Amino acid sequence: MAKKKQKNAGGTPATVALAAAGTAYTLHAYEHDPATPSYGEEAAEALGVTPDRVFKTLVADVDGELTVAVVPVAGQLDLKALATAVGGKRAAMADPAAAERTTGYVRGGISPLGQRKRLRTVLDSSASGHTTICVSAGRRGLEVELSPADLAALTSAVLAPIGRG
User: What is the mean pLDDT of residues 72-100?
Assistant: First the structure.
């Protein structure tokens, strides 16, 4: 993977955060189709990688606190497992407007990196089975490929089995 050094590489807060941390990553841009029903599956197909290596960033409300869940696009988020992973009792998907306002990103382009307000993050433990994974780089049609360990370190993520699928 190439290390991007420009401060505005890709032009998103996520790529700025990666560059500032000196983390090795590869940026992948593709033509986004606004009519696509699944942004994550579109990314996997456009990048030519299996859907289990492309992870979507979801924002949930766990006991009144917004929490980021990063799970493979091939599956779904297990809300009960997410709540358990952070010591909570109840989880539900967050209001999309609240997720956008809090992270600074639009739906379909929310990145676990470079968020306006840093939220606690849980990365599905299946990520550790891959050398690299892809997550949103902060806008639709832009993905960043990096090691799961680097993603976990940069987001202070807990690894837990939160995906099902």
Answer: 96
CB contact at 8 A, 59 and 94 = yes
Candidates 112, 139, 108; CA nearest to 35 is 108
Q: Tell me the pLDDT tens digit for each residue of 100-123.
A: 999 999 988 999 999 999 999 999
CA distance 138 to 66: 18
Count CB neighbours of 78 within 10 A.
Answer: 20
Contacts of 37 (CB under 8 A, 6+ apart): none
Measured in residues, the chain has a length of: 165
Helices (H) and strands (E) in the chain, counts: 5, 10
The span from the CA of 145 to the CA of 3, in Å, is 11
pTM value is 0.91
Burial class of residue 125 (count of CB atoms within 10 Å of its CB; 0-12, 13-18, 19+): middle
